[in-house]
UniProtKB/TrEMBL annotation:
Keyword Hydrolase attached: yes
Residue ranges annotated for the Glycosyl hydrolase family 13 catalytic domain, each copy included: 23-431
Highest taxon in the source lineage: Bacteria
Protein name from the UniProt record: Glycoside hydrolase family 13 protein
Length: 552
């Protein structure tokens, strides 16, 4: 085994390459003031949980002033703190306590759009057509005899047209909710303001940034604007069929000039600030965002979207390692986040199941066995943590939380529900507040009820219910992260030849081995000392289905 753990100290500029980073959705983590929303003081009070878990950093989803038209991603002031979540002093206290506990802090930034309540957008509405204020956004006259039709056929990610008409007749672009007008990154004032934002948070001790919609900033705004037509109005089909870098608003080549400019800011700090791109693009294109002179790392969403299939996962793992290597970056792995069905539920859905339809059926068609889902989720987690690169965890997965698929429609907060005319339920089911204790109006989330209702089953998943309990999911995570830090050495793996069908079997640095049985039948357990198993081993030298084992 490796004698020395990886250097994750503040002096190491490459601490992020194999770090475990824990995503906090602050409104659902811990509520200190009792208003039902999680807040920064609540998070600070619960930081010992993250330190005891063994993660290296926390990534904080938006905590900025927002009307919550999109869960905080509609930012009114990118250099402020939402008063419901705290103050800048609370943020400074959070960073100070995190650093005292040995945790890095990564914050979400949202450069593609602002809130419609941002002072710039309000100025643009007052200033009118042709004004300099409107040049910070994407305003255009409509089509049709009276300008009554949108400028293009582009569609919002959340459903409906990506254009919204204002009182004077012009239309503005919003690739997400109408409350999220897109910025014009051809405008130098926009670029300068974001340089200020990056320095503002870096000066306050932030160690890195997660860049929201990193592939969406640059847009082809030359006239006439292009319709997508038969290639697909959402842009996803067009992204696959148009020449790389030529889509009118996704993944354009010009976006990389922006990130090369940002890298100069990141590298002016000691150690340099890290960054990771949320870029929903194919692997070869994703590598561009992860180059060392740009953001340095990019999320690998193919892994998150994969089914529970050994051949598919092996192909994705090999592809991601090659992609990261080509960029000079490290690989990234993630199973859950604030935008997708939690993997304790998702991995149990039969192949071909539409998650949106499953959510609309309140998780009943098909029904998911929570015990079977948790078993598979635990196996998936140990597999992920054995892979070279950075692992990103989502709050609550260390408790084994399933998706809350049966939220009543009257409590839904995600704008997707309304934007799609009630055809997509949205992402609230993975954002339900965390359970900390086995009793209380919100199971320890806060002194009162949370902003979304928790099911009674959450009591059994609570931190209090699992701490110190042998075999619990929380203790599995704690043990796995402690072992991982000791075992890491290098950023490569070697596939074991002759592995049975349905099995993923590889070694790391020739000193430890991870074996996952994704098939329906037990397989022979390879020789070696069992360091950790995602489920109890039955004996007899076999590895049961839906189980991962680490061997020395």
């Amino acid at each position: 085994m490796a004698d020395r753990p990886p250097d994750l100290s503040s002096k190491n500029p490459d601490w992020w390459r194999q770090a475990v980073i824990y995503q906090v959705y602050p409104r659902s983590f811990a509520d200190a003031d009792g208003d039902g929303l999680g807040d920064l003081r609540g998070l600070t009070q619960r930081l010992p949980h993250l330190a005891a878990l063994g993660v290296d950093a926390l990534w904080l989803s938006p905590f900025y002033p927002s009307e919550l038209a999109d869960g905080g991603y509609d930012v009114i002031d990118p250099r402020g703190v939402d008063e419901r979540l705290g103050t800048l002093d609370d943020f400074d206290a959070l960073v100070g306590e995190a650093h005292r506990l040995g945790l890095k802090v990564v914050v979400d930034i949202v450069p593609n759009h602002t809130s419609h309540l941002h002072r710039w957008f309000q100025e643009a509405l007052r200033a009118g057509p042709g004004s300099a204020a409107r040049e910070r956004y994407v305003f255009r006259p409509g089509r049709g005899p009276r300008g009554e039709l949108p400028p293009t056929d582009w569609q919002s990610v959340f459903g409906g047209s990506a254009w919204h008409r204002v009182a004077d007749g012009e239309w503005y672009l919003h690739l997400f909710a109408p409350e999220q007008p897109d910025l014009n990154w051809d405008n130098e004032e926009v670029r300068a303001d974001f340089r200020t934002t990056l320095r503002f948070w870096s000066d306050r001790g932030v160690d890195g940034f997660r860049v929201d919609v990193a592939h969406g900033l640059a847009k082809d705004l030359t006239e006439p604007l292009r319709d997508l037509g038969a290639l697909g109005t959402t842009g996803e089909t067009a992204l696959r069929h148009l020449p790389p870098g030529s889509h009118p608003y996704w993944d354009r080549d010009e976006v990389h000039e922006i990130y090369r400019d940002w890298r100069k800011i990141f590298d002016a700090y000691r150690p340099p600030r890290m960054a990771v791109a949320e870029a929903w693009v194919p692997g070869g294109r994703r590598a561009l965002y992860a180059r060392p002179d740009e953001l340095g790392q990019a999320f690998n969403f193919e892994y998150l979207q994969a089914g529970w299939d050994a051949e598919e996962l092996r192909e994705i793992i090999a592809g991601e390692l090659a992609t990261a290597r080509s960029a000079g970056a490290s690989a990234t792995w993630v199973l859950s986040n604030h935008d997708v069905v939690r993997h304790a539920s998702r991995l149990m859905l039969p192949p071909g199941t539409d998650p949106e339809a499953w959510l609309l059926a309140h998780g009943s068609a098909p029904a998911v066995d929570p015990a079977a889902g948790l078993r598979r989720a635990r196996a998936a987690t140990l597999l992920m943590l054995a892979l070279p690169g950075s692992a990103y965890l989502y709050q609550g997965e260390e408790l084994g939380l399933p998706e809350v698929a049966d939220l009543p429609t009257e409590v839904l907060q995600d704008p997707i529900w309304e934007q799609t005319g009630h055809t997509r339920k949205g992402r609230d089911g993975c954002r339900v507040p965390l359970p900390w204790t086995t009793t209380g109006p919100s199971y320890g989330f806060g002194p009162g009820a949370g902003w979304l209702p928790q099911p009674a089953s959450f009591a059994g998943y609570a931190v209090q219910a699992q701490t110190g309990v042998e075999g619990s999911t929380l203790e599995l995570y704690r043990t796995a992260l402690r072992l991982r830090r000791k075992l890491l050495d290098g950023e490569t793996l070697t596939w074991t030849p002759g592995a049975p069908a349905g099995v993923l079997d590889f070694t790391r640095s020739e000193v430890w081995r991870s074996v996952t049985n994704l098939g329906p039948e037990p397989v022979p357990l390879p020789p070696g000392e069992v360091l950790l198993s995602s489920a109890e081993l039955p004996g007899g030298g076999v590895l049961p289905p839906d189980t991962t084992v680490w061997l020395a």
